[in-house]
């Protein structure tokens, strides 16, 4: 059985898409993650921000930060799902080892 790790996912969405459609994408993402072995810790809307460069002729995007506790195989499924979602412009998933719960080590 795979060990669960903490991950952080930043998702950049199209600001012209209605927020209800974005919520549907995140609801489906949570369902897929739960079935695959991921526990969603938090979802934060960072709001609309100016982009450093144009993406699909857009100068702004809406940022979302997702923290999750997941097995590595579930991350691949979540990434594949986000790749085919039209409102998602970009996303990045990183493993957060610095946030791992400290474990008791045996002193020899």
Task: List its traits.
single chain; 108 residues; alpha+beta; 4-stranded antiparallel β-sheet; 4 strands; 28% helix
Structural class: alpha+beta
Distance between the termini: 28 Å
**How would you describe the shape?**
globular
- Number of DSSP helices? 2
Report Rg.
16 Å
Fold and architecture overview:
By secondary structure, the protein is of the alpha+beta class. It has one domain: 2-Layer Sandwich (Alpha-Beta Plaits), CATH 3.30.70. The chain is 28% helix and 44% strand. The protein has helices spanning 19-36, 72-83; strands at residues 5-13, 38-55, 58-70, 88-95. It has a four-stranded antiparallel sheet with strand order 2-3-1-4, with helices on one face. Strand 2 and strand 3 form a beta hairpin. The longest helix is centred in the N-terminal third of the chain and has 18 residues, at 19-36. The two termini are 28 Å apart.
